[in-house]
Amino acid sequence: MFMRALAVGAVTGALVVGGTAAAYAVTTSTKLSNGTLSFTAQDGSAYGDSSVFYASTAYKKTAGSKVSVRLEMITKDGRFGSSDAYKSVSAGQTVITQWGGVSKSRYASDCKATGSMWATGSIYYTPTVHFC
Asked: Alpha helix (H) ranges present in 61-114?
């Protein structure tokens, strides 16, 4: 069974340069009793398209019994779930769901997003990131 977040995660960034634009891939995480939930977002300008962003939510399970999780991304104007719904994960495994080319103007005009995970009737969140 999961416990609520033990501490607010750290936010890190990595500079990525593409063409004439530079953009940060911003990662944040939340430590849980049985693993770590992390979220990464990057402005599409790093790949030549400033109208979109790319993101991923990951859960690295470090202890406890096998569980089913649903990884999501939440923005100002949308909630994105994994296309294959729930994924099973055991200690020592990592599950990841990725989103590519998400419209900033339609779903994240404020350039903010949050990772989340549903597991055993509870939901867990990462701190929100500002990716552009």
From this structure: 104-107
The tens digit of pLDDT for each residue in 62-98 reads 999 999 999 999 999 988 986 667 899 999 999 999 9
User: Helix H segments across the chain?
Assistant: 104-107
d(Cα 90, Cα 129) in Å, to the nearest integer?
27
- Within 8 A by CB and 6+ apart from 15, the residues are 22, 24
Instruction: Evaluate whether 50 touches 21 at the Cβ level (below 8 Å).
Output: yes
User: Which residues, at least 6 apart from 76, have a Cβ–Cβ distance to it below 8 Å?
Assistant: 107, 108, 109, 110, 112
Give pTM, 2 decimals: 0.81
